[in-house]
User: What shape does this take?
Amino acid sequence: MRKPLMAGNWKMNKTIPEAISVVKALKSAVADVTDVEILICPTFTALYAVSNEVKDSNINIGAQSLFWETKGAFTGEVSPVMVKDTGCSYVIIGHSERRQYFGETDEIINKKMKAAITIGLTPIVCIGETLKERECNITFKVIEKQTRGGLTGLTLEQAALVVIAYEPVWAIGTGKTATPDQAQEVHAFVRKIYAEMYKDAAEKIRILYGGSVNSGNVSELMKKPDIDGGLVGGASLEVESFAKLVKYSKQQL
Ligand code: PGA
Assistant: This one.
């Protein structure tokens, strides 16, 4: 019922020519994929060129962040309408690197979320506990706070459009993936909280897992009922690894 979404988060990697060359090759490598929605999130500078390159393909494009104001004196920021203008349909919001290095709070994330939805971008909201929080047994408390704080104040219609990415901070870029059971436990909890907030929308939304996902561990993760896709950093940078990951269902045959 929920179509899996495999999203590549390129972070601060690739110049425009590098980005173009990867998506060109990716386009043909995944041309036959229909059972999974494919998304690539390049840097701001490459968005326009990359989205032109993937026009008429099965690859969608997303930004890695945005600002909530429409225009004005906000040096260095990029507005929702500008992101939309590049051809994007998605935007990642509140990635743990944004929270950690750029001071994004649940309140800021909530503003960005609403701005994204208003302009017609699908937000992928990131949540996740740090290692210290997991060791202190406050994972669920943190997840509940981030889910409620970041996603408050939506209409039921808007709530059904959201994508949530559970990315334990200790698993990002470390090669240390959460086990499928660990991830499923949090995903089911997130869906339960979301159901308390937005009732039936909880069954419609996709909850992605992120944190050292690769072509070797993706199929086990995807077997879990509440894992609806992946937000992939490192393994999305190369065509071969990302194409293999996107085609995870074929590995089970
Ligand atoms: P990773 O990054 O796959 O390199 O761990 C995931 C992310 O930060 O979105």
Remarks:
- The mean pLDDT is 96.
